[in-house]
């Protein structure tokens, strides 16, 4: 991962770490919503909802456009897909573990111990 | 390569990996039952794992840390839920605050199910990990993100050795 990727990941996970923002994102991924319509869906001030929308926008998960006096927000499907890419990174960790197990099985064991035997080197 | 199948489910933040090992079920089980073997495979070569406590029984605790090349330690634990030796166990994998291994409640745990089944050639292992939130996933990645490059090197080594 490059520095920029890391910065983007930080921004995504910060944005997605909040329940209201995840809910806003679900709505705007399904279709464009005006910020004022979104604000009516939550038991919080218009300013608070606007702030959540701004966090999602800075993280690149949501885009906004103006239509007259309305600000319309829609979700960025590509960016949301990047969460899937995170799972791919995790897959790499797992593939490493499995590959190390495979190597372990390929090397002859020194003094195999039956299960339940105490290991003298253990603290 | 022993990995035979990988499935991602971004909606439920679940990762399912299937691997076929050329070793009998009892031998694969031993890796999890023996902390010295487990730490040889759990952490990436750059972030080796050290298991301080190891109790693979229902309700048991596994406490471990991983050490970064800079010497920074990441403390984590498993809370073992069920154990069906030698074919399956389930546990919650979480992050600890420090060397006391007290749970870091700011971070959700992941739920894990490991299953081992005999095959004609050895063992089929199925690993299912479910992350409660994107945040939890990020922490795991912070610990394991270096793995990609070290894994690539391992694969080259294996290729040259074969």
UniProtKB/TrEMBL annotation, chain A:
Lineage: Bacteria, Bacillati, Actinomycetota, Actinomycetes, Propionibacteriales
Matches recorded under InterPro entries: ArsR-like_HTH, HTH_ArsR_DNA-bd_dom, WH-like_DNA-bd_sf, WH_DNA-bd_sf
NCBIfam families xrefs: HTH_metalloreg
Annotated CDD domains: HTH_ARSR
Residue numbers spanned by region Disordered: 104-123
Entries under PROSITE patterns matching the protein: HTH_ARSR_2
Ranges of residues in domain HTH arsR-type: 1-95
Signal peptide (residue range): none
Protein name, entry field: Transcriptional regulator, ArsR family protein
One Pfam family cited in the UniProt record for this chain: HTH_20
Matching PANTHER family: SLL0088 PROTEIN, TRANSCRIPTIONAL REGULATORY PROTEIN
Automatic annotation (TrEMBL), chain B:
Xref: InterPro entries: ASHA1/2-like_C (IPR013538), START-like_dom_sf (IPR023393)
Residues in Activator of Hsp90 ATPase homologue 1/2-like C-terminal domain copies: 23-160
SUPFAM superfamilies tied to this protein: Bet v1-like
CDD domains for this protein: SRPBCC_CalC_Aha1-like
Pfam families: AHSA1
Protein family according to the UniProt entry: Belongs to the AHA1 family.
Protein name (Swiss-Prot/TrEMBL): Activator of HSP90 ATPase
Organismal lineage: Bacteria, Bacillati, Actinomycetota, Actinomycetes, Propionibacteriales
């Amino acid at each position: 991962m490059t520095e920029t990727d890391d910065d983007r990941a930080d921004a995504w996970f910060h944005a997605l770490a909040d329940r209201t923002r995840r809910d806003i994102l679900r709505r705007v991924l399904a279709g464009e919503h005006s910020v004022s319509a979104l604000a009516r869906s939550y038991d919080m001030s218009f300013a608070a909802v606007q702030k959540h929308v701004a966090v999602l926008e800075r993280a690149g998960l949501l885009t906004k456009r103006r239509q007259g006096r309305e600000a319309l927000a829609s979700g960025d499907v590509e960016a949301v897909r990047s969460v899937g890419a995170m799972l791919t990174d995790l897959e790499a960790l797992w593939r490493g573990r499995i590959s190390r197990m495979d190597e372990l099985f390929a090397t002859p064991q020194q003094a195999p111990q039956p299960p339940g035997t105490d290991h003298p080197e253990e603290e | 390569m022993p990995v035979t199948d990988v499935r991602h489910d971004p909606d439920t933040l679940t990762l399912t990996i299937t691997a076929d090992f050329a070793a009998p079920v009892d031998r694969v089980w031993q890796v999890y039952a023996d902390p010295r073997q487990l730490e040889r495979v759990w952490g990436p070569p750059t972030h080796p794992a050290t298991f301080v406590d190891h109790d693979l029984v229902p309700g048991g605790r596994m406490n471990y840390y991983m050490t970064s090349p800079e010497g920074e330690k990441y403390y984590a634990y498993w809370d073992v839920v069920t154990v069906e030796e030698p074919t399956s166990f389930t546990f919650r994998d979480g992050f600890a605050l420090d060397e006391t291994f007290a749970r870091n409640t700011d971070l959700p745990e992941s739920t894990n199910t490991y299953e081992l089944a005999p095959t004609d050639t050895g063992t089929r292992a199925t690993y299912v990990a479910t992350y409660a939130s994107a945040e939890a996933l990020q922490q795991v990645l912070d610990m394991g993100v270096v793995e990609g490059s070290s894994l690539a090197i391992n694969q080259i080594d294996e290729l040259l050795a074969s």
